[in-house]
Amino acid sequence: MRQLGLTFAALMLALPVWAENLAQRNVLNEQPLSGAEGTVVIVSELKLMPGGRIPLHTHPGDEHAVIVVGGLALLPNGKEVEFAAGTPMFFPEGQVHGGVTNLGTAPMEIVTTHIVRADEPFQTAAE
């Protein structure tokens, strides 16, 4: 139980990085990974409001995500991409990702599943 609390605290500390609440993460479920002591699975809903940006970052484990409500986004390389609902994404441990800005007029919604080490910060800024 202590590990879950530490992971949740680390997650909450990471949230202020996303300015003006334009990116909102809501943890839906957090449980230890069976057979992998010290590892936790966190399922969250992420809403990226119009003009909101997810900063570049990494995690101490893998992230799987699915776009639920898509939209037009600006990538770190300057390209604009239309993300469709149902688009899957995968970011292995340590891979820098994010840097995405919602260019649309409606929130983008993403469901994420993180499989991370419970004794490390949920995310580390990479910019």
Task: Please give a structural write-up.
- The strands form three sheets. Strands 1-2-10-5-8 form a five-stranded antiparallel β-sheet.
- A hairpin with a 6-residue loop joins strand 1 and strand 2.
- The chain is built from one helix and eleven strands; from the N terminus they run αβββββββββββ.
- It is mainly beta.
- 10% of the residues lie in helices and 47% in strands.
SSE topology sketch:
Layout: H1 2-14, E1 23-32, E2 39-48, E3 53-54, E4 57-58, E5 61-69, E6 71-74, E7 80-83, E8 88-91, E9 100-102, E10 108-117, E11 124-125
Antiparallel strand pairs: 1-2, 2-10, 3-9, 4-11, 5-8, 5-10, 6-7, 6-9
CA-atom Rg in angstroms: 14 Å
Approximate helicity band: 10-25%
Contiguous low-pLDDT stretches (5 residues minimum) are 1-19
N→C terminal distance: 32 Å
Q: What oligomeric state is this?
A: single chain
Give helix and strand order, one letter per element, not per position.
Answer: HEEEEEEEEEEE
Give the amount of beta strand, in percent.
over 45%
| Annotation field: number of helices | 1
Q: Sketch the major β-sheet.
A: 5 strands, antiparallel
Summarize the structure.
The protein has 127 residues and is mainly β.
